[in-house]
C-alpha cells in the first residue's frame, strides 16, 4: 500500500478557516496515547456558524448577540475559543476531540478574537505501516458517537498536549456532506434551524 511515512505539517496549516482545515486533515496521522491513527472523518464548525460552541456562547437562541454582561466568560468553550494562542491546539469538549483553528476578529465592544474549530469524528489505526480496520473504529465511524473515538484513542486532558498531527503520502478519495447528529428546534424564528451545510468530510476510498 502507499507509504505512511510521517511528515511534519507546516506551522501555518491551522491558520485557516474550519471548512478548509477539516478536509485537509483527512489522511493525516494523529499520534496519541494509543498509537497512530489515520484521520478519516472530520466536521467543520466556523465561529460564525450557529452550531459552533463559540457562537452559542455569545448568541441567544434566536440568533441575536448576547450583551457582553450576559456572556459566561468563565465557560470552557469561551475561554478556549477566544484565545488566539490556542490556534492549532487540540481540546476536549463534551467528550469529543476538537482542534482550534482560524482566529477571527469580531465587532463586539471589546473586539475579541473568536476561533473556528474542527471536530475529529473517525480514524483508522496504523500499525507497521498497515491500516488496521476492525469493528471498534473504522472508516465509517463518523456515523457513530465521536465520544467513542476519544475513548478508543485513550485521550484525556492529561495527555492532550502530547498529541501530534503528521502528514502522509497515502492516496485516497473523499466526499463531503451535511454534518450529522445536529438537533433542530421547531421554532421557525430559531437561528439554529438552518441547513446543516456540507461541513462533514470523509474518506470513502483508500487507494492501495
Which characteristics define this entry?
mainly beta, ten-stranded antiparallel β-sheet, globular, 208 residues
Percent of residues in beta strands? 25-35%
Please write the string of helix (H) and strand (E) elements.
EHEEHHEEEEHEEE
Q: Total strand count, please?
A: 10
What class, by secondary structure content?
A: mainly beta
Low-confidence stretches: 188-193
Helix content: 10-25%
The global form is: globular
Oligomer: single chain
Largest sheet: 10 strands, antiparallel
Whole-number radius of gyration?
A: 17 Å
Question: How is this structure best described in words?
Answer:
The chain is mainly beta and 208 residues long. The N and C termini lie close together (4 Å). About 3% of the residues have low confidence.
Task: Give the topology.
Blueprint (H helix, E strand, L loop, with lengths): L6 E2 L9 H8 L3 E4 L2 E11 L7 H6 L17 H6 L8 E4 L2 E10 L7 E15 L2 E3 L13 H7 L11 E4 L3 E7 L22 E8 L1
Antiparallel strand pairs: 1-8, 2-3, 2-8, 3-6, 3-10, 4-5, 5-6, 6-7, 9-10
Summarize the structure.
This protein is mainly beta and 208 residues long.
Amino acid at each position: 500500500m502507499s507509504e505512511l511515512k510521517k511528515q511534519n505539517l507546516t506551522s501555518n496549516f491551522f491558520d485557516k478557516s474550519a471548512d478548509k482545515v477539516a478536509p485537509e486533515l483527512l489522511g493525516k496521522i494523529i499520534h496519541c496515547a494509543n498509537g497512530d491513527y489515520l484521520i478519516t472523518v472530520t466536521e467543520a464548525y466556523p465561529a460564525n456558524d450557529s452550531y459552533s460552541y463559540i457562537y452559542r456562547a455569545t448568541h441567544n437562541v434566536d440568533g441575536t448577540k448576547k450583551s457582553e454582561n450576559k456572556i459566561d466568560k468563565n465557560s470552557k468553550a469561551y475561554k478556549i475559543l477566544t484565545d488566539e494562542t490556542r490556534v492549532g491546539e487540540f481540546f476536549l469538549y463534551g467528550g469529543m476531540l476538537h482542534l482550534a483553528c482560524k482566529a477571527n476578529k469580531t465587532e463586539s465592544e471589546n473586539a475579541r478574537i473568536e476561533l473556528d474549530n474542527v471536530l475529529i469524528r473517525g480514524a483508522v489505526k496504523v500499525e507497521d505501516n498497515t491500516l488496521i480496520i476492525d469493528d471498534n473504529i473504522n472508516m465509517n465511524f463518523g456515523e457513530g458517537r465521536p465520544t467513542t473515538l476519544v475513548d478508543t484513542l485513550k485521550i484525556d486532558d492529561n495527555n492532550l498536549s502530547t498529541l501530534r498531527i503528521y502528514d502522509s503520502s497515502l492516496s485516497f478519495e473523499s466526499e463531503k456532506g451535511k454534518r450529522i447528529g445536529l438537533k433542530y428546534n421547531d421554532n421557525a424564528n430559531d437561528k439554529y434551524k438552518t441547513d446543516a451545510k456540507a461541513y462533514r468530510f470523509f474518506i470513502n476510498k483508500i487507494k492501495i
